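Attaching the record inline, Q. Sequence:
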Amino acid sequence: MAQQSSRKTGGLHKQMLVRLLVIVVAMFAFGYALVPIYKAICEITGINVLTPQTKNAADIVKNTQVDKSRSIEVIFDANERGKFQFKPETNRMMVHPGELVTVNYVVHNNLPNDTAGQAIPSYLPTKAAEHFTKLECFCFKQQPFKSGETKEFPVVFVINPKLPQDVHTITLSYTFFEVAGATAMVAE
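Structure, as predicted:
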């Protein structure tokens, strides 16, 4: 009888071990799948999408006619995470679709050490993003900073005249943050 009870207990231990292994594998798979799920959600919502440089941006500008019959108010917003001071030189401007525009952002590193920062843009309304073409932007790559350094970055853009007629205001918002582990890269 004791042997039968021991077998039963041994079988229960094996079942529990198999269940725990299945749970561990499922948790690992879920954690691994979170990265592409997060990227897909960010692309759909337009949040935290790193801005790739448009390859044919110069051609787009050459072939775009300025629509002087229409003006779009562009609001420039800046948010910082960490020890940076970050702001646009102007908070808003009126822009004609098809017009080449430059706005400057100023970033100051308040850290006592060298570091690197990254800007992530977002647009409101989100449908404006596909009509907002940047030729030059500090958001295309990480930016190195020395301790206490201040830099001015131009953003050169054009708004496609195909922007829906119901859009009268576009907010271009950047969040600027320190890139973790980038200090070694800056020192090289």
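DSSP finds three helices and nine strands in the chain. The radius of gyration is 25 Å.

More tomorrow.
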